[in-house]
Amino acid sequence: AVVSTQSTGGLNESDPHGPKLINVKHVSKSRKKGGKTADDDFLVFEAKVEILGNIMHYREASNGWVPKMNVMLFTGQHFTSSIWNDIGTMEDLASLGYRVVSLELPGHGLSREDPEKKIRVAEYIKLFIQHLDLYRPGLVVLTCDESNSNVMEYFIRYSHTSPLLKGLIVIDSAADQFTSMDRVLGTSIESQTLFLCGGTDSDCQTSANDWARNIPNSRVHSFSNAYREFYNEDPVVFNTILKRFLEYVAQKPQSEKI
Asked: The pTM is what?
């Protein structure tokens, strides 16, 4: 059941520099646990936060407790942050104890474009993560399509110095946004990395395998009989793959290879 509520899950709305809530929902989700039915209660909300004078819009789902890990989701060209809510990804992960944040980058969705280009988008990502304290107790990032180049730049810059940056999931790595030098620089990415491709998308598989040869802790998974929007075509299978990867990352030392 989904019930509207004014609860903000402990967020301090009086903080002038903190997130400003747009709407909040309380969700109760039943699941089997130890042979019994248990209810998982968590909040799903939209908010905006100001980073260097630029408004960033995001969605978040969490149960309000200390999370197993934090999961940050980015979207592609044809969707906004609502896609991960619509296909059940945010609720699925929040019900298992993850804190899930879906961010719209500057100029995408409801996030304001930065006309002055004050800093690179990868730096906005870093500042947003710091502002919401997403590094602790560990962070896994999923990037898709149009967001890939900015997120990959962020990981190339900071993965080797941020041990709490535990995992990276990349969807559709075939766009012409990557150069051979980008892939060589991928050797600096120390996070556990998973590339996801449609089984019929040969361009994505070629690009993903090129990346995987350069990133030490990486692998490629293909979805059979699917093209690029496999996450939208079969969200149950997609969400299951995400949950397995998160469990894998949680158990894996940062330096251990796949």
From this structure: 0.85
Cα dihedral 208→212→218→222 (10° resolution): 30
Pure H helices in the chain: 82-86, 89-95, 121-131, 148-158, 180-185, 202-214, 230-233, 235-251
Those residues whose C-beta lies under 8 Å from the C-beta of residue 6, and which sit 6 or more positions away, are 24
pLDDT band at 172 (very low <50, low <70, confident <90, very high): confident
Task: Provide the pairing of β-strand 139-144 with 99-103.
Answer: unpaired
How many residues are given for the chain?
258
CA pair distance 227, 135, nearest whole angstrom: 32
SS3 call for 179: coil
Tell me how far apart the alpha carbons of residues 189 and 161 are, in angstroms, rounded to a whole number. Answer: 10
8 Å CB contact between 197 and 170: no
pLDDT in tens, 17-34: 567 777 676 666 655 555
Residue 54 pairs in a beta bridge with 51
